[in-house]
Design brief:
CATH architecture of the largest domain: 3-Layer(aba) Sandwich
Helix content: 25-40%
CATH class of the largest domain: Alpha Beta
CATH topology of the largest domain: Rossmann fold
Number of domains: 3
Radius of gyration: 27 Å
Shape: elongated
Strand order of the largest sheet: 12-11-10-9-13-14-15
Distance between the termini: 52 Å
CATH superfamily of the largest domain: HAD superfamily/HAD-like
Strand content: 25-35%
Length: 408
């Protein structure tokens, strides 16, 4: 029986191999160790541009010198360098205050990574592990951090993100990051590119006027319901057929289908909540297989828009209420809901969610949200959930979807 079973801290060997990656490295090392009667306490391995780093922590055998020489011979035969360090005790458990810090950059510069690492060190925290989530069309890096509360880390890194021109998402390292969730999305300028009401206004010859009011409302400068009713009034007389033309002209945000498709495979529910119009959002929901939808209904009489809305307006408070309603229907706790939006009327919805993401949002919204994503790819949100680009592409390939090749 070894020391570890006897309840005493065992002597250990930390074996670190570095060199060109090739098949059989790990099996060769453990083949060498197998006759020594050691127990494996920890293993870490990474491959970076064809270079392998393998770390193995084992209990020290009685014949330490013999095992050390055998491992060195194995490393030499593999053409690799090896470092063997003798010590006492297993790896320490990671400290409390565990968080995931996801950094998105296009490009991601060394100065930005250095600044982020510096702020983490300033807080007395430690980076326990680093993983690459994607290398194109943005670079996404996930840091496992311990030793500081998530809220304090988020505050410090939010300021650094602005200085460095990168996106940084900070989330507590809990099971919710992997659990089935509900994603609630805004539509205009989030799920889709542009604003539907402005596209409709083009048919009424008042696009510029409507766009100015929309922009002011999204910045939170004027009441949303008041602004919506005034804009819709300008659409009076537009033929209902314009809705079909607008729908056909809609462009989804890059990566929208990929995000929905990937998360549906993992059992996620989806909802869209919009200050726009149900005549558009209901069709979007059907097209993307989204479970729930809530939006305003334009009144149509004799084939033309009347310039009025049927029923209550889906405003800032209405969006948050819809989120709670959909979460209850899906059987998902509020803490397991992710909300994504860009305008001031999304703020209550973002605050009602366990994770509120400001997507290419106005400054007011970015400052209030849990995190912000400013790259023009909606599927970048997958990296915040611990899903890598390689996993996405592998699942797509298995299902027969063709994804673009990365740059060489």
């Amino acid at each position: 029986m070894t020391d570890v079973h006897a309840g005493r801290k065992p002597e250990t060997l930390l074996i670190t191999l570095t060199g060109k990656d090739r098949p059989g490295v790990t099996s060769s090392v453990f083949g060498t160790l197998s006759g020594a009667g050691v127990e494996v306490l920890d293993i870490e391995q990474i491959v970076l541009r064809g270079r392998l780093i393998l770390g193995v922590l084992v209990t020290a055998p009685h014949q330490v010198r013999r095992v050390t020489e055998a491992v060195e011979e194995t490393a030499s035969a593999l053409g690799m360098s090896v470092d063997i360090e003798r010590g006492v005790g297993d790896n320490k458990a990671r400290r409390g205050g565990r968080s995931h810090v996801t950094i998105l950059g296009s490009p991601l510069r060394a100065a930005a990574m250095g600044a982020v690492a510096g702020r983490i060190a300033d807080l007395g925290a430690n980076i326990d592990r680093i993983e690459r989530m994607a290398r194109y069309p943005v670079t996404a890096i996930d840091l496992h951090v311990s030793g500081v509360e998530t809220a304090a880390l988020r505050t410090a890194l939010a300021a650094e993100a602005v200085r460095q021109g990168v996106d940084i998402a900070v989330q507590p390292a809990t099971l919710l990051r992997r659990g089935s969730r509900l994603i609630v999305m805004d539509v205009d300028s989030t799920l889709i590119q542009g604003e539907v009401i402005e596209m409709l206004a083009a048919h009424a010859g008042c696009e510029a006027e409507v766009a100015a009011v929309t922009e002011s409302a999204m910045r939170g400068e004027i009441d949303f319901e008041e602004s919506l009713r005034s804009r819709v009034a300008l659409l009076e007389g537009v033929p209902a057929s314009a809705l079909d033309e607008v729908y056909d002209a809609i462009l989804l945000a890059p990566g929208a289908r990929t995000m929905v498709r990937t998360l549906r495979r993992l059992g996620y529910h989806f909802a869209i909540v919009s200050g726009g119009f149900s005549q558009i959002t209901d069709r979007l929901a059907a097209d993307l297989e989204i479970d729930y939808a809530r939006a305003n209904e334009l009144e149509i009489v004799d084939g033309r828009l009347t310039g009025r809305i049927v029923g209550p307006v889906v405003d800032r408070a209405g969006k948050a209420a819809a989120l709670r309603e959909f979460a209850a229907a899906a059987g998902v706790a509020g803490a397991a809901v992710i909300a994504i939006g860009d305008g001031a009327n999304d703020l209550d919805m973002l605050n009602a969610a366990g994770l509120g993401i400001a997507y290419n949002a106005k400054p007011l919204v970015r400052d209030a949200a849990d995190t912000a994503v400013n790259v023009p790819y909606l599927d970048a949100i997958l990296y915040l959930l611990g899903i890598s680009r390689e996993e996405i592409e592998a699942a797509d390939a298995e299902a027969g979807f063709v994804t673009p090749s990365p740059p060489v």
